[in-house]
C-alpha cells in the first residue's frame, strides 16, 4: 500500500467540500495527512474568477475544524492549486494528496511541497520570482526526498499576480502580469530541473523555445507566495502509484495525449478501456492558443473573440481531447502554458494506480 | 475522376469568398455546377448570429456575378447550410459541392438537393414541417438517383426558425422553437429513411430514443424553407469519393469518432496519419450537451453557465475531439442534435477521397 | 441619533469584508447589533454566480469571530441578500443594517426581519411559498413594530431556488424556477401588504398586472428559506433616516427614478447635488427587460443575445440611469422584477439621512 | 424646408435595409442624394463583430440597385459609419443623411464628407494617419462650405484597423492598434479644428488631456481609408435643423447629457418631453471606461471582466443614461473615446428639428 494517497473528488459547487468531509468523517482520510490540493472550479478562469478563493476558503474551514489549526496557518502550509474553468466536457473536481509518513516503502511516487517567500507585485515576472521559485522547487524536492532532477515527473506551481498592479510592477496590465508570473515560475522550475538552464527575465514571453515539459503553472490573485508541489520518484516511498508526463506539440496532438497515459502505464488505445478507467487517479494538462492564429495552417478564432476569452476557448478544446482519452471529464486543464511544453502546445501528466 | 467534387475552402471572415472566387477565376470550379454549400462561420451560433446571413449574401453575390442569375433565384436553388461557432480548435471554412452532370460513372457518391415549400412559423415543430421535410428528402434522393433508403449516408437539412414567434407558433420562445424545428426536421429525415418510422409531433424533444444516425440539422432565421442535401450511393455517378458516418454514444466517445473515419476508408489510429490527411475532404459532426447534467457520472457545467452558451461549450469540446482525429480544425460541428444520433451523443460523417 | 444605522461599504472582491471588520475593530459598529446585510457582488448574477455564497461565507466568518456564534446560527438569523452583477457604472458594495435596541425614539424608520420555514424545491413557485412569504412579512413587520401595511416602505426578500430541480418541482428548468420563486415571493409580499390581494399560483408570471411597488426580490441557491427584511415607519424608532420608493413605468423612466429620490427627501434635479450626495445611504432598484422586445416602440436586443445574458444587459442599463441620478455607482440593482413594479418597468427605493 | 434631411430608421437585423428601401420606393428619399449613413448594429462591437460589414454590404446592394452604380464606387464615396453593440436599452437603427443640392437656403446645418487616402496598417496610430485625417476634415469642411473651425459642431470619423497587424504596425495587438487608430483620428480632427493644436503620435493614448469635444471616432476592419463626416453651420444651407454637442466629465455626468440636448434646442427636464420627442433626429455619444478603475471614488468592474468586454459594459451604461434623456433607445453610442471628450468621460451630440 502506497503512503501517498490521491483522492479524486467531485464538487457540487465551488464551496462544496462535502466529499472530502465524508472521507474524513469515515476515517478514510486523516486531515492531518493532507499535504496539497489541486482542483478545477467552474469559474471563468480569469482575473475576476472568485471560485478559486471561495473553494480555498471552504477547504481551509473544513481542515481547520478537523485539525484545530487556524485558517492562516493551514493556508501557509498546504498548497491549494486551483484553476477556474470547466468548459465543455470538463467536470469540477479536486485531487487531495495525503501522505502517511509512518508508512514507508522501498521506492515509489513521492510528493514534496514548499512555499516561497511572499512575492510582491514588483517582483512578479522578474529574476527575483524566477529565483524564488527555483529555490522552492529544490526545497520541495528535498521535502520529498527526491535527489536527482531526472527523477522529477512534474512540478505544479501556483504563482501570485496582482489585480491592480502599481507603477513598480513590470506591467500595469494585470492580464499581462499574470502571464509574466506563469512564465517566471516556469523558468524557476526549468532552472531547478535543468530544463531551462539559462533563462533570464528578458526571455520571458519572448523566447518561447525555452520551456520545460515538466512545469505546470497556474496564477491567481488568491495567493501571495509561489506554492510548489513536486512529484517524482524517491526512496522511502511505497510503490503502487505511477505518474507519466508527455508534451503536446500542438493543441491537436492526440498522439501526445495518448503517450502521457502510456507513460503512466495505462493502455490507452486510443481511449483508456472501461475496465482500466478506475486506475486513472488524476490528469493534468496545460495548453495555449497558438499565437500565430493558426493550427497546422488552419486559422483559429480563439485570440480575437470579444465574447469568449481565449483561455475559455482553449480549455474547452484541450479538455475534451484529454477527457476523451481518459474516459471521463475530471481533468485538470489550465491555459496559460507559457514556457510549459512546446509553444502552441503544452503537456499532459497522468497519475495512476499501478497494476 | 468523380463527377461530384468537394472543395474545402478557408475564409478570412464571414464575408470572404475569395478562395472560391479564385477557383472560379482559374476555371477549377464552374459556378453553374455548384449545387450546395456547407460552411462554418465564426459567430456565436445562436439566434443573434448574423455571420450566417452575411456569408450567404456574399456567396450569392459572387455566384450572381459568375452566372448572371439574380440573388433570389440562386438562394432558391442552392442550399447554403451554415452553422455559426468555431470555438476552440475549429476553423472557419466552407465545403463547396459541385456536380458535373455530363461526366457520369458506373456508381459512386451522389448528391441530391431539394427545397421544401416555405414553412411559416406556425408550422415549425409540427407535423406539417415533419412531412414537408420527409417529402423534400425523397425529392432530393430522386434528384440524386438514390433509389433505396439504405444507400443514403447522410441528410443535411437547414431548417427555418423565427426570431419573434407569434401566438400561432408552437412556442413563443425563439430558442425552443429553434430546437423544435431541428427536431421536426430530424423526424422528417427519419420518416423518409425509415429510421424513425412512427415519430409524431408529440414526440419531438420528448422521446429522445427516436433518432436517426443519418440526420444532421441546422436551424437559422436566414432560411424560410427546409433546404435538404442528401448524400448516398447511386448509379451513374463516378467513383473516387467515399463517405462514412458513425454515431457517438456520448460526447467523449472517441471510438465513435474513429469509426466514422474508418467508415470513410481512412486509417485513423487514432489520428489520421499526416500522409493521409489530404484525403479528408469534409467532416461533419453533431452533438448535444447531455441533458442529465453529467457525462459518464461526472457533472458537466454546460447547461447552467450564464456567461457561455451551452452550444458554444458543446461545439468547442466536440469539435476538438473530432479535429484531433481528423488532424485539422476545418470541421463542421453543430450543436442541437435533437433526434440526430443517440441522446447525449451525436454523429460524425466523413467525406474522403478514395485511395 | 437614529437607532437604525445604515453603513454603505465597498468591497475589493466578494470575499473582502475588511471595511466592516475595520468598523467593528474601531467600535463604530457592534457586531451583535447587525440585523441584515444587502449587497451587490461582481458575479454574473445567474445560477452559476458563486460570488454571493462566497461573500456570505466570508461575512459569517467575520461575524462568528466577532460574536462567538457559530456560522450556522448566524446564517439562520441574519438575512444576507446578495445580488450578483455590477455591470457598467455599478460598484460592488454592501449595506449593513445595525439596530441599537436600547436607543429608542418617538417614531422613525424601522427595520424588521424574519425567516420563513425552509422551502423545498417542490414548494417553490407555488401557494405554499406565497403563504410562507406572506407570514414571514407579517412576522418581520411585528419584529419592527410596524402596525399598518401602509407604513411599509419596502420589503426585500431573498428567496430560494434549486440548481437541479427534480420532478416534483413546478419546473425542471432551474432558470424558470428561479423566476417562479421571485414571483411567488412578490405575491407573498403583496398578500401581506394588500397590494396583491387575490394572487394565486396560477397568476405567477402570467398576470403581470398583479404587482407590488414595494416588493424587491432576489433568488439564489445559497438560501433554503425565504429571508425577509421589512422597512417602514414605526413608533419607538429614532428619527433621522428617511426612505422613499417609486415605481418605474419602463426602463427609461428617468422621472420615476428622480421621484424615488424626492420621496426620500433628496433634491435630485435631475442628479443629487454634490453637497447632498453624502446623505444617500443606500439605493435599491429592480427592473426587467421588456418582454415585448421593444421599449417605447424601439426594438431592444436584451432577450435574444446568445453572448450576454438578458439580466446583465438590464442591470447595466438600469444601474447606470439610477447611478447617474444618485451621483455614484454603489447602487443595488437586481433584475428579475416579476410582479415587482409595473411590467417592463420596476421600482427604485432610496434610503437617506434626513436633513 | 432644409436641404439636409436626416432619417432615423429601425432595422430588424444587420442585413435589414427595408425601411430605407421603402422610403426610396415611395420617393421620400432619393437614393442619389444619400451622402452618408451612421448606424448602430447589434454585434459585440469588437474585432470579430461582422454585423458592421454585413450592414454595409446590404446598404451598398440597395443603393446599387437604386442608382445603378457599382458596389465599390458607392463604398468609395458614401461614408458608412457603423458601431456594433446595442447593449441594454439601445436599439439597432441607422441615420441616413441626404442632401438636396438644388434646394439651397441662407444658412443652416451643413454636412460635408471626405475620404482620406487608404491607410496601410503601418501608418495606423502614427503621424501619417493624423495628417491624413486632418486633411480629410478640411476637405469635408470645404465640401460643406464651412469656412471657420468654430462653426463645426461634430466630426465623425470611421478609421481603419487591422485584424492581424504585421511587424510593420505600431502594435501587433489588433485591439491596441484599433485604439491607436481612434486616437490618431481624434488627433487629426483636433489638428484641423484647432482643438489639439500640438498633438504628436507620441501623445496618442498617453496625454489624455489632449482631446477634442467635437471628435467622434469609430474604428473597424471593414474600412481601409479614414471616412470623414463634418457637421456644422454654413451659408447656402436651408434652416430647420439644429445640432448641439456637450462633453461628459465622466460616465455619470447626467448634467452633461442634458446640456447636449439643450444645445440642440430641446427642452430636456431632465427627459425630453413626450411632445418634443419627435424633434430628436439623431443622438451620438462617445464614452470610455474610466481607466483608474473607479468612478467618483467607487470601484467599477468594467476593465477586469473576463466574461464581458469593457466596451460592452460601457455602451450599456452610457447608452441607457443618454436614452433616458432622449426618451428612446435609438442612440448611437460608441466606446473607445480616446481623446474624444475628457478622459474617463466623453461627449454627446444631438441633431434635432428646429421649432
Automatic annotation (TrEMBL), chains A, B, C, D:
Substrate binds at residues 52, 83-84, 182, 218-219, 315, 334-335. It is an enzyme of class 3 (hydrolase). Mg(2+) binds at residues 288, 337, 340-342, 345. Its EC number is 3.5.2.-. Keywords: Hydrolase, Magnesium, Metal-binding. Residues 1-103 are annotated as: RU A. It comes from the Bacteria. The active site is at 158, 218 (nucleophile). Gene3D superfamilies: Cyanuric acid hydrolase/Barbituras, RU C, Cyanuric acid hydrolase/Barbiturase, RU A, Cyanuric acid hydrolase/Barbiturase, RU B. The keyword Glycoprotein does not apply. Residues 241-355 are annotated as: RU C. The monomer structure is formed from three repeating units (RUs) that share the same structure as one another. The monomer and the active site possess nearly threefold rotational symmetry, to the extent that the active site possesses three potential Ser-Lys catalytic dyads, but one of the 3 active site surfaces varies in composition suggesting it is involved in confering substrate specificity. HAMAP family: Cyc_amidohydrol. Belongs to the cyclic amide hydrolase (CyAH) family. Homotetramer. NCBIfam families: amido_AtzD_TrzD. Cyclic amide hydrolase of unknown substrate specificity. Catalyzes the hydrolytic ring-opening of a cyclic amide. Does not act on cyanuric acid nor barbituric acid. This is Cyclic amide hydrolase.
Amino acid at each position: 500500500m502506497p503512503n501517498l494517497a490521491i483522492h479524486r473528488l467531485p464538487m457540487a459547487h465551488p464551496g462544496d467540500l462535502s466529499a472530502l468531509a465524508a472521507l474524513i468523517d469515515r476515517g478514510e482520510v486523516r486531515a492531518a495527512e493532507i499535504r496539497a490540493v489541486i482542483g478545477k472550479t467552474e469559474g471563468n478562469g480569469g482575473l475576476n474568477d472568485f471560485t478559486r478563493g471561495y473553494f480555498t476558503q471552504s477547504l481551509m474551514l473544513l481542515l481547520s475544524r478537523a485539525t484545530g489549526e487556524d485558517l492562516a496557518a493551514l493556508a501557509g502550509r498546504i498548497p491549494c492549486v486551483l484553476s477556474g474553468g470547466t468548459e465543455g466536457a470538463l467536470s469540477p473536481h479536486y485531487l487531495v494528496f495525503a501522505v502517511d509518513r509512518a508508512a514507508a516503502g522501498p521506492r515509489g511516487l513521492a510528493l514534496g511541497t514548499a512555499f516561497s517567500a511572499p512575492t510582491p507585485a514588483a517582483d512578479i515576472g522578474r529574476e527575483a520570482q524566477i529565483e524564488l521559485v527555483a529555490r522552492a522547487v529544490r526545497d520541495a524536492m528535498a521535502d520529498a526526498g527526491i535527489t536527482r532532477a531526472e527523477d522529477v515527473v512534474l512540478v505544479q506551481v501556483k504563482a501570485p499576480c496582482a489585480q491592480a498592479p502599481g507603477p513598480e510592477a513590470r506591467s500595469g496590465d494585470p492580464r499581462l502580469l499574470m502571464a509574466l508570473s506563469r512564465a517566471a515560475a516556469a523558468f524557476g522550475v526549468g532552472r531547478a530541473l535543468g530544463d531551462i538552464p539559462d533563462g533570464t527575465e528578458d526571455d520571458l514571453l519572448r523566447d518561447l523555445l525555452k520551456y520545460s515539459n515538466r512545469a505546470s503553472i497556474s496564477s491567481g490573485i488568491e495567493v501571495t507566495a509561489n506554492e510548489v508541489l513536486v512529484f517524482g520518484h524517491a526512496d522511502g516511498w511505497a510503490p503502487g502509484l505511477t505518474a507519466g508526463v508527455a508534451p503536446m506539440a500542438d493543441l491537436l496532438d492526440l498522439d501526445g495525449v495518448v503517450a502521457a497515459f502510456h507513460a503512466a502505464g495505462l493502455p490507452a488505445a486510443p481511449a483508456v478501456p472501461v475496465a482500466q478507467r478506475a486506475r486513472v487517479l488524476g490528469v493534468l494538462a496545460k495548453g495555449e492558443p497558438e499565437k500565430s492564429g493558426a493550427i497546422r495552417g488552419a486559422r483559429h478564432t480563439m485570440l480575437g473573440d470579444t465574447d469568449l476569452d481565449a483561455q475559455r476557448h482553449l480549455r474547452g478544446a484541450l479538455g475534451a481531447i484529454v477527457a476523451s482519452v481518459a474516459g471521463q471529464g475530471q481533468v485538470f486543464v489550465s491555459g496559460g502554458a507559457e514556457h510549459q511544453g512546446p509553444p502552441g502546445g503544452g503537456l499532459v501528466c497522468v497519475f495512476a494506480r499501478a497494476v
